[in-house]
Input
Amino acid sequence: MRILNVNDRAASRYLITQMLEQNGFTVVEAESGEEALAKAAEQPDAIVLDVKLPDIDGYEVSRRLKLDEATASIPIVLSSAAFVGVDYRVEGLESGADAYLAQPFESQELSATIRALLRARQAEKRALEALRLRDVFLSTASHELRTPLTAVSLQAESLRALWEEKRWNKVPPETIKKKLDILNRQSEHLGNLIDQLLDVSRLRAGGFHLEPEDFDLSELARQVVDELSEVQERLKYVTCVESAGPVIGNWDRTRMEQVVSNLVMNAYKYGQGRPVTVAVRANGDNLAVLSVTDQGMGIDEIDRERIFERFERATSDPNLPGFGLGLWIVRQIVGAFGGTIEVESSPGKGARFTIKLPRQGVIQ
Amino acid sequence: MTEIRTAEGDANSRTHVLVVDDEEDIRETIGDVLLDAGFSVILLPSGSEAIEWLGNCPIVPCVILLDLMMPRMDGTQFMEAKNAVAALSEVPVIVLSASNNVAQLAAAIKAQGFIRKPVRMKDLLTSVREHCPHSPACEDKPPASAVV
Output
């Protein structure tokens, strides 16, 4: 942590620098208000600012730093040996400083004050980052929703035009059927997107309802892959399910379908058209292991943790759409049954996602 | 994947609209609407396929509707490749996108226009007619039929 220590008197400046360095801070010094303003632009983590300075006083320096967006969030501790009365302290805080320490003070008090201010700043940064992610997410979500809506609204308008112009009977029946198929498919797609959005708020609120029952995970994987046959055909994916036999466990069927389906759809998204393998096996009596392997672009090592976070995606490529929720949802569900998810990958050669689940669902 | 559909009785290559969109249902839907309005359509899933197709084909479309969310070739690359073909350099491009900043996206690649998804049928046809003045008039709608 880098602290800017502003004081015009060499002795006081030296003393405060000593205190800060003893507590593990790195110190940059300034001797005047002007110099403080210039050095604040280099973004120190906090500023210890003397009130009485030869050019611009500490109150004014505080005010200017807090008015400038670039420096507004740097915590400022005003300090003074001469101005120690209530009025001075109040004026200091009113000018925008985050704390006011009257000298003499102990080294521990100074460093504890700075650490407290840094904690608050950290919390503020996290909140701002969450807001930024939410904005990115809203913009992605509206983009994702608009695409199927385009097909739905244009087809509906087109059907309406046929009706209003009394041209129903002149149109071949297969044309009408195609229109209705597109309407069906795209409105279902819209429904799925909205379900995903609702899942996020439900999972985050902890209102996560599970109905465990005994079933065979191999069978479920096969069934999910079968249900995706239309997608496989459209995207030209070959998907094979490998399993040596039944792997019975006690989990929530609907949620496990969601897990398998999200992992397989993820493989289709990043798999570059090459075959995808879903493998299910038992590991001893207690553990079920399911993996989904693709041979696509792979995931860089630095991204392997991040992709499980909400709104994060393996790529910033705008050509690959998605909410960035699929893997996050998978991890929440697997976690709810006491399981784990891991990813192995060699970039350019594909990725393998492996989930390990206790067969007797330990519901968390 | 390449599909050319001609409105009945249309022998005029100046009424061909090229639609490039990687989402099949969107491509088909826009194709349906244009075909129904009397245009002929060429439907292709990607910019690279469109360039390849245009390079080998005698038909010069009156306008290209280009979705910008396409794998393999981005909008700038598409514009460069298109402008490199003498016969196509004058063909206007309308960017189709669901992005909030579709206007900037279109301006960035120097496209002649943009349409933000979702689009009303009327607005889609107005944009296309602007660039295809030889197209059939609104009231003169032949029945849609598909000939590949």
The longest strand of chain A covers residues 350-358. The longest helix of chain A spans residues 107-164. Chain A touches chain B at residues 139, 142-144, 146-155, 157-158, 161-162, 165, 167, 170-172, 175, 178-179, 182, 185-186, 234, 318-321 (CB under 8 Å). The mean pLDDT of chain A is 88.
